[in-house]
Design goal:
- The protein is an alpha+beta fold.
- It has a domain of 162 residues: Heat Shock Protein 90 (2-Layer Sandwich), CATH 3.30.565.
- Strands 2-4-5-7-6 form a five-stranded mixed beta sheet.
- β6 and β7 form a beta hairpin.
- α3 packs antiparallel against α10 and α4 crosses α6.
């Protein structure tokens, strides 16, 4: 009986030791998995930030070089013998470059305010029709020059929403511009708005463009991320348009979602609720510190 008690005690001790070893092994395995995931996330964030800084430098320098070069030519008009027509042409090029530069700086300021939580909406009761139709009309020339058909279909029974008209116009301008930009000539972009069954409004921007994979969508909605981050990418841009649009929709208490298929097209859906924006603005998700760090570096570049 005594030997049986010793044997049972030894078995319990071995089982306890085995359980302890297994627990340690599980913890080590989980730690390795977490470390690997954190490393991949850090590498991804670092790559996104580096690409954005490089591309933003390009976006800032290109219009600045144009402004400096053409203004120098105009300043030296008397010595160079420029005609009046050439002076007017150079002045227009300077104006275009300055407009592009201002748009880049405004994007930087917008994302900075959103990230710091200091962005405020000036909301009022409005009809989404008064936002969408002028937005689409203003981009007709852009789409025509790109060889892309742009159409708009807005339902007549849309409910009123509470929103900031200027910022919603910015949202839809960014989204439609992106759709046109990434749709090859001969393609189409369609803007559709209709009432949601449970209240609110749904706006869809559908294009027949290049499309994106799931991973590319994740990059596209990341602040400072670009699906094609190289200098030889086929479309220029800061990579801030889509993240700003998503953030502004969230500030309105809405939701922005993307469904896309490579080489088929993309549909961006914006859902805007009936609830006052000021009641849901606090639910907007702030961006991480890596994005803020990158923004600080870019702000230095812009100075």
């Amino acid at each position: 009986m005594f030997n049986g008690a010793i044997s049972s005690s030894r078995q319990n001790s071995l089982m306890s030791e085995y359980a302890s070893l297994m627990g340690d092994a599980v913890l080590r395995s989980r730690a390795r998995v977490a470390e690997h995931a954190a490393r991949l996330e850090a590498e991804f964030a670092s790559r996104i930030k580096s690409e954005f800084i490089a591309n933003m430098s390009h976006e800032l320098r290109t219009p600045l070089n144009s402004i400096i070069g053409f203004s120098k030519l105009i300043a030296e008009q008397q010595a160079g013998g420029l005609s009046a027509e050439e002076s007017v042409e150079y002045a227009k090029l300077i104006q275009d470059a300055a407009g592009h530069l201002l748009a880049v700086i405004n994007d930087i300021l917008d994302i900075s305010k959103i990230q710091s939580g200091k962005f405020q909406l000036n909301t009022r009761e409005m009809d989404i029709d008064e936002i969408l139709r002028p937005c689409v009309a203003g981009l007709k020339l852009t789409s025509a020059n790109a060889g892309v058909e742009l159409s708009c279909n807005i339902a007549s029974d849309l409910p009123e929403i509470n929103g900031d008209g200027v910022k919603l116009r910015q949202v839809f301008t960014n989204l439609v511009t992106n759709a046109i930009k990434f749709t090859p000539a001969g393609g189409s972009v369609k803007v559709t708005a209709y009432a949601e069954p449970h209240g609110g409004t749904i706006v869809e921007i559908n294009d027949t463009g290049v499309g994106m994979t799931e991973d590319e969508i994740r990059v596209a909605i990341t602040p400072f991320g670009q699906v094609d981050g190289g200098h030889n990418r086929w479309r220029e841009g800061t990579g801030l348009g889509l993240p700003i649009a998503e953030a502004l929709v969230k500030l309105h208490g809405g939701e922005l979602s993307i469904v896309s298929e490579k080489n088929v097209g993309t549909t961006v859906t914006v859902r805007l609720p009936l609830a006052p924006a000021k009641d849901v603005a606090s639910k907007a998700t702030p961006y991480n510190s890596d994005s803020i760090t990158a923004l600080a570096e870019i702000t230095q570049l812009a100075r």
